[in-house]
Structures are given as structure tokens and as C-alpha cells.
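Q: what sequence does this backbone want?
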């Protein structure tokens, strides 16, 4: 099978298109012919060697944290799917990833693909939707009527988060560049603040929740806009100094897991029309290095870059 692989940490040029043997599914696994894979910021950070302590890799490895495809074979004891079923799946950074024509997955790392969206859209909701769900529903525990500020509302995770918070009945504020304010309003944000024109910390007060997908000084300034006892929930982005106790607020990390239950909540939200997939661009697998360059330069906006693996 064709796959993207790298044998050493480095720049996007370490990514090669190679021929590899297809994986053999374990008895409880399905073999999936991959149609699409996401390219996420973590893929380039891991490839560059920035996250070696958190994600120790056996090199060579294939990147890719999620994807969608069709079951083409099943292991001897695999009774949870059938050949031809369309599935979304996740792969951990430390295992062979989704930039490959075939992956083998156990039931717990898959979920049926929502029928009314294509493979690229189905891929775009998986890791991004799970991160937003864990951040807002499982960690922040948002409730109707709360004031919620979401940073990076034009990003893949932020765009999902805006939609989730709106569906819960929160008053949603979001930050993004001036070029994306209409886009983020279109996702459901009640108030959008352009980070390249205005300072959210001078505008907002009384927030119950901040979802921080940026870090750095944004984190400290976010504590100022929270009510006492409010929560700032963060995903690993730029390093920041935790000043939450100075402001009397709670600081919590959204710890990302891939439980099937959370995958199902996300695909259900798509089927109910709560979450609309956001695909920023579609590129062939052979252009994986270019996709990494776009992300690394901070030029991705409005959803996920999707690699098209197979027709
Ligand atoms: N396990 C983990 O800890 C974990 C898991 C998932 C993601 N993450 C991290 O979470 C971050 C977001 O991931 P993603 O997939 O959503 O990334 P993404 O799709 O690449 O989104 C990046 C977004 O950041 C926005 N942005 C840049 N600077 C900003 C600022 N100063 N204020 C507000 N928005 C700003 C950009 O908005 P414009 O386009 O409008 O400029 C862009 O849309 C990444 O750093 C990623 O590595 C961590």
C-alpha cells in the first residue's frame, strides 16, 4: 500500500511517499481502506520532534491522527462490523497513522460514518469534534445561559466548539482574525472579536468559561475576563504561565482521549444537525509535506486540511 512515512525528526521534507505492506488486522480488528485523513497541528509538531517526551515514537512511522474509510476485511473474531461498512476512526500519534491506504482498527477506535456527509467531511469532525467536545462538555461542563469565550474560533477545533456551545444555549464570544469574523459569526457566535484589530481583554467581562486554544499571553489575559470562580480550559498550544489563583478562577486542561462514547456523541451531533463539518482544503496524499508547511506557517483557517488517500 502507499503511505506517508518519516524515518527521522525534521522539517516537512522528511515526509516520503512509500510502499509498505498493508497491516494484518488482529482477530478483533477491521481492515479499513482509508479514503481521507486529517492533517492536524499535532502531526507537524510530533514530526518536528517537539513532543518527544509526550509521544515517544518508534521510527520510521506514518503520521495521521484520524480518518474515514471502508471496511475491506475483518479479523477472525471481529463481529462488530461487516465488509463494506463506512467508518470513521482514530489512530494515536504513537502508532502507525492515517496517512496510509490501509489501517487496522479495533471497535473502540471507530464509529460509523454519518451517512449524509462525505469522507472528507466525516474526517474533519472526528479529532476536531472530539477535542471540542472534551473541552466544553466533559471538562468545562458548560450549561445553558453561560457566557463562553472561545479562542481561535476559525480553527478546526474552535469552529466545532462555537457550534457546540451555541447548541447548549450559551452566549458565545469568539476570537479570530478580521478576515474570518463573518465565517465565525456564521458558525453561531454571538460576538466575534478580531485579534488583529481589537483586544478581547479590553472588551469582555463576566465570562463563565474560556476555551483557550492559543495559550501564551492569551491565557493570562483570558483570566481577566472571567468571573470569580469561572473556568479556563486549555489544550496544549503555546506554553503559558498559570495565573489562575491570582484571579480566583479555575484552570483545567482538556485531556484528550479517544473513547468510543465520545466519538459517538460527536457523530450524533452531526446527524442531529448540531455540528456542521468544516473542511478548509482537500489535497492528495502525495502533498502531505505541503499540508504540513501550511499548518506550520499558521496559514490554515476555516476547518481541517484533508488528505485524499484513495478515490
Ligand atoms: N492534546 C492536545 O493537547 C491538543 C489536541 C488538539 C489540538 N491541540 C492544539 O490546539 C491548537 C488548535 O488546534 P486546531 O486543530 O484547531 O488548529 P487550527 O485549525 O490550525 O487553527 C488555528 C487557528 O488559530 C487561530 N489563531 C491564531 N492566532 C490567534 C490568536 N492570537 N487569537 C485567536 N485565534 C488565533 C487562527 O485564526 P485565523 O485563521 O482567523 O487567523 C486559526 O484559525 C493547536 O495549537 C493544537 O496543537 C492540542
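A:
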Amino acid at each position: 500500500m502507499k503511505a506517508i512515512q518519516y524515518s527521522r525528526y525534521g522539517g516537512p521534507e522528511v515526509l516520503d511517499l512509500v510502499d509498505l505492506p498493508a497491516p494484518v488486522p488482529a482477530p478483533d480488528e477491521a481492515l479499513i481502506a482509508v479514503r481521507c485523513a486529517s492533517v492536524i497541528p499535532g502531526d507537524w509538531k510530533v514530526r518536528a520532534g517537539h513532543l518527544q517526551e509526550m509521544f515517544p515514537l518508534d521510527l520510521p512511522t506514518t503520521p495521521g491522527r484520524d480518518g474515514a474509510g471502508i471496511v475491506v476485511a475483518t479479523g477472525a473474531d471481529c463481529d462488530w462490523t461487516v465488509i463494506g461498512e463506512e467508518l470513521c476512526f482514530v489512530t494515536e500519534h504513537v502508532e502507525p497513522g492515517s496517512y496510509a491506504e490501509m489501517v487496522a482498527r479495533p471497535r473502540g477506535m471507530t464509529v460509523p460514518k454519518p451517512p449524509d456527509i462525505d469522507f472528507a467531511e466525516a474526517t474533519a469532525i472526528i479529532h476536531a469534534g472530539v477535542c471540542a467536545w472534551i473541552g466544553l462538555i466533559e471538562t468545562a461542563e458548560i450549561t445553558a445561559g453561560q457566557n463562553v469565550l472561545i479562542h481561535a474560533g476559525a480553527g478546526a477545533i474552535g469552529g466545532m466548539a462555537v457550534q457546540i456551545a451555541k447548541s447548549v444555549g450559551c452566549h458565545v464570544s469568539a476570537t479570530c482574525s478580521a478576515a474570518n469574523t463573518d465565517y465565525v459569526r456564521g458558525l453561531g457566535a454571538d460576538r466575534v472579536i478580531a485579534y488583529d484589530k481589537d483586544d478581547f481583554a479590553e472588551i469582555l467581562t463576566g465570562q463563565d468559561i474560556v476555551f483557550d486554544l492559543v495559550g501564551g499571553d492569551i491565557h493570562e489575559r483570558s483570566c481577566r475576563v472571567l468571573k470569580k470562580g469561572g473556568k479556563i480550559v486549555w489544550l496544549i498550544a503555546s506554553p503559558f504561565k498559570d495565573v489562575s489563583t491570582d484571579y480566583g478562577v479555575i484552570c483545567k486542561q482538556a485531556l484528550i482521549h479517544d473513547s468510543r462514547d465520545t466519538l459517538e456523541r460527536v457523530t450524533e451531533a452531526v446527524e442531529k444537525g448540531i455540528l456542521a463539518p468544516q473542511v478548509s482544503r482537500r489535497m492528495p496524499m502525495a502533498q502531505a509535506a505541503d499540508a504540513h508547511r501550511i499548518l506550520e506557517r499558521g496559514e490554515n483557517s476555516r476547518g481541517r486540511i484533508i488528505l485524499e488517500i484513495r478515490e
